[in-house]
Amino acid sequence: MSFVAHSDWDRTQVAYAVNRKVGNAVQRNRLRRRLRAIVAERSVDLPVGAYVVRSTIGGPALEFDELKVAMSQALDQATSRSPERTGR
Fold first, then answer.
1. What does the DSSP 8-state code read for residue 61?
2. Percent of the chain at pLDDT above 70?
3. Alpha helices, H only, the chain
4. Contact present, 71 and 39 (Cβ < 8 Å)
5. At 66, is the pLDDT very low, low, confident or very high (cuts 50, 70, 90)?
6. Are 16 and 53 in contact (CB under 8 A)?
7. What predicted TM-score, i.e. pTM, was given to this entire model?
8. Helices 64-81, 25-42: inter-axial angle, 10-degree rounding
9. Are 1 and 51 in contact (CB under 8 A)?
10. Closest Cα to residue 52, out of 17, 5, 10, 7?
11. R_g of the chain computed on alpha carbons
């Protein structure tokens, strides 16, 4: 997960990068939908900025609750260490 804060933006932008190594199209799309649902639940608490969510090969094997915990940790870690962008 990568995050760049943009306090001058009016909303958060999220991109999902799920590599073909993760699985076939059905597995990748299912994982992407699950990731979107998790981010949507947390969207109220997220700082405004740009997010890139990437998945590893083990992503589809995780249960939804396990994926939710991993995403929450990644979101917390990414937002706690990201400097704010200025001048662009």
1. G
2. 92
3. 25-42, 64-81
4. yes
5. very high
6. yes
7. 0.81
8. 60
9. yes
10. 17
11. 13
* Integer angstrom CA distances of residue 81 from 1, 3, 21, 46, 61: 12, 9, 28, 14, 28
Q: Report how far residue 51's alpha carbon sits from residue 46's, in angstroms, rounded to the nearest whole number.
A: 10
Per the listing, tokens 């990731």 go with 35
Q: Please answer whether residues 7 and 88 qualify as being in contact, where contact means their C-beta atoms are separated by less than 8 angstroms.
A: no
Q: Which fold is adopted by the domain 12-81?
A: Ribosomal Protein S5; domain 2 (3.30.230)
Tell me how far apart the terminal alpha carbons of the chain are, to the nearest angstrom: 22
Distance, in Å, from the CA atom of 41 to the CA atom of 45, rounded to the nearest integer, reads 9
In this predicted structure, the answer to whether residue 86 has a pLDDT above a threshold of 80 is no
Compute the distance between CA of residue 71 and CA of residue 65 in angstroms, rounded to an integer: 10
Q: Are 17 and 54 in contact (CB under 8 A)?
A: yes
